[in-house]
Structures are given as structure tokens and as C-alpha cells.
User: Fold these one by one.
Assistant:
Number 1:
Amino acid sequence: MNRVFLASDSTCQSYDRKEAPQAGWGQFLQQFLKDCTVINHAIGGRSSKTFIQEGRLEVIANELKEGDYLLIQMGHNDSTKEKPERYTEAYKDYKKFLQQYIHTARKHHAIPILLTPVSRLHYVNGEFLVDFGDYCNAMKEVGEEEKCHVIDLMKLSVQHLTKVGIQEATTYYMVDINGTDHTHFTEKGAKQMAKILSSSLQLIIEA
């Protein structure tokens, strides 16, 4: 039985029923992965830096065993310059922190997989826009430098939103509920993002 650990932020975290319909894709990933156990350590408001500083990567490291997978989706909170405690510069410390996740996984003979940030609902002039461009690119650079798997979840999610169109896409995000939140998912959206990710992830696991 493969074990899949998740290190990420509020777009991935599991939410209590009282917080429904807000949800993270991590709480639905289990449904789409064959012969896997998903262990979700994602928590809101964390960047690649603060997740490590708070000892959360160390907690995962203490659980990791040979053959486990560590999925790392960071970037949403890394980009918030107005919150310097979270902020990382894309091509400098962000890359260094991502390397720490990779090296930690490999130290325990686990397999790291980088995930570019999942799409926000950013729709302008009939087109879904890609956010966090520097962070996506920096993560791909780390993937090449470290010979680490990278799943371009930003690209996959934007492609899916484009396919279904803005009316359907809006139902994926909490803006459909509260009129303001274009980042966090409804249960419907979180489940769809988990499904999108699982297809690429399953190919890596089965390779």
C-alpha cells in the first residue's frame, strides 16, 4: 500500500464539516488513488518557509518510510509580499526551501513530487489567467536541477477551467457562496482538482 503525504496550504487542507462547503483537494485525493493511503498535513496560511519553520516538515519526516511519496504544493502564500513572515522570493529562498522538502524526502528514501500552485479563479476578457508565474517557473527549475518529478497543477487546472467555462468554473470556488473568495474551493471544486491531479500522480506511482 503506497502512502502519499501532502505538504501544502489551504487549497489542499482538509476542512471540518462545519466549514462546508469549503474544502481542499487533499481531502478528496484518496477517492481517486488506487492502493494508496493519503496523509494530509496541509494547513492554511503557510508558505514553503513557514511550513518548515513551524516544524511541520519535520513531523512528516518522522513518519516517512522507504517508498512513500511526499507531494509539495507551495506558492500561494509565498507570493504575499504584504506578509513578510510568509513571503519568499521566487528564484532565491523559495527554491532553497523547495530543495529542503526534496532532500528531506530522499533522506528517508521517500519520493518527492513538486506540484505547481493550483489555479485561482482569475478570469479576464474571456480567458482564465495563470497566477504565480515566477513561482511555477522557479519550481520547474528546481525539478530539473534536482531531477525531481513536477506535476504542473497550474496548467492542468487552468486547462480544465477553460474546458468547462466560467459559469461552471465559478461553482468550484467559494466566490459562488460568499461572493468574494476566488482562491478556496467548494467541495465540488476540490473534488475536481483532486481528480485532475490523481491522473498524473497515478502515472508516476505506476511507472
Note: DSSP finds eight helices and nine strands in the chain.
Number 2:
Amino acid sequence: MAWIYLSIAIVFEIAFALGTNATQGFTRLWPSVFTLMAAAGGIFTLSLALRTLDVGVGYTIWTGVGSIGTVLLGALIYKERITAAKLVSFAAIIGGIVLLKLSAGV
């Protein structure tokens, strides 16, 4: 169940990051409400996942996969460029996540 909670937390994390851009400095009401709700949902579901997972593993996966998802969706939604350096960074993040998961024995 912890991995399901973590997956939901990652979706909230991506929504939070993308929503923050849409708030225009928290000057737009509904994007701001959406962003704050996503942040709260992400922290809540992450806390549920961390009841079972090691904090180092859970938090790192949450931020790492959330970062990758944010960059990919940022490219689709906001037309941001994905460069070779970003692709190399993705590979490093994914490699780190796999090693963390293996080291946690879960």
C-alpha cells in the first residue's frame, strides 16, 4: 500500500509544481487554490507512504520522479525544451531511484 500512496503523492507533486507556474506568483485565485490543494495532498499521501518506507527512500523517489514528471509535462504544457543535459539528468535520477529501491529491500 505504501507504493500506491507514494504514487499518488508523486501525481500531487507534479500537479503542485505545474500549478505553481499557473498561479503567476499566487495572484490568480483558482490556480492558487488548485496548487495549495495539490501541495497538501502530496504531503499527506507522502506521509502515509512514509509510515512504511524509509524516509530517505520515499522522499527521494517522490522528489525525483516528481521532477521528471514535471519536466516532461512542462515540455508538453508550457513548451519548455528538453535538452540532452536534461535527458542525462533523467537517467541519473532513475538510476539513483533504482539503487535506492534495491538498497531498501522493498
Note: The radius of gyration is 15 Å.
Number 3:
Amino acid sequence: MVFGANGHQWRREPPLTTDELAELESQLDVELPAEYRSFLLQVSRGGAGPAYGLFPAQRVDDRWRWEGDGTELTDLKTLSRPFPHTDAFNPADDLPAPPGKVDFDSEDKFNEAEDAYWRQHEAVVFSPEHSIGLLYLCHLGCAYREALVITGPARGQMWGDDTASDGGFLPLHEPDGSPTGFTRWYRGWLEQAEKQTQSR
């Protein structure tokens, strides 16, 4: 069984019409990267895809959005602002180490300091500013997600978000070291899925 297929059941949502895509981009005030635009118009708006599936673009109450576990990480209001990174980065890198019990003369003081530390950690690591310009497209499990860079110097590239495990953000690459774009990302999943089904 291909991982995640139980969730999407190999179903694909219908593609967007040109009018629907125009309305979506108008609402977001951004033109989506070419490979993803072509996919939305010619293949599907979402459904069967990597891991638990490709988050579908849906029109709800006259507003366009993506639906799925993690789509709330996409800030549609700031999607047109550039994602500034080209190299992997980890928001947790600049945080101090968690407090140790040996530094406190009571359990209560340690617990208070530890709670304060993790509140600060969460505020820094999960700040929405880190994902400006990212469109989250799928959930791989264990809160690891992958996103498409919509704006900025890495526009059109796929990135992984492993902040839930303190792994930070990292660009996806092909075996030859070149950046992974949407088409290569999706085709890579299709090729792997085909190999798995043929080997059964």
C-alpha cells in the first residue's frame, strides 16, 4: 500500500477553470508559480498526491482557500509578501538551552522557569513571520509538512517545514542538487507510487 493512499483514495478534485484561477489570484494579490498554475488548470485542484494528499483549493463563502491538516499555516493575507530565504534555517537555533533543575533551589521555581522557556520557544519557533510567502500543500505525518514558495528568491521551489521537531525549514533538492520544483515534486511521488504498486 502506498503511504497515505488510504486518506486520498487516489481521488483527484477537478481542475480549476481559468476564471476560478483568476479570481483566486486576485483575492490573494499574487500570481502562483507557473508549474503549480498549470497543474491547477490542467490536472487537478488537489487530492491524490504526496503523503496524505495534495491540499485542495476550495471556494468557501466566495473566498478561496486550501483545506487540509496544516493549511492554517498558510497566511493567505501575506502570501504575496516575499519568503526571504534560499538556504535552510532554523528559528530555534538562537534560543538558549532549556533550564536545568540544578540551577534552581526548588521544584516550583524550576517548573516556573521551564514553563516560561517553552512559552518563549513556541512564540519564536512558530511565529507566522517564518512562513510568509509559503503555501502549504501537504502533510507527511508527525506535523512535518511541505510547502511551495510563492514569492521571493526561491519562488517555485518546494520546502519542508520540520519546526514541530525543531528541525526548522529546509529547501528540497533533487539527487543532482538542483532545487525541487512543484512538477518534479509531484512526479517524483507518482514514480515512487508506481514502483510500489508494481512491486506488490
Note: DSSP finds five helices and six strands in the chain.
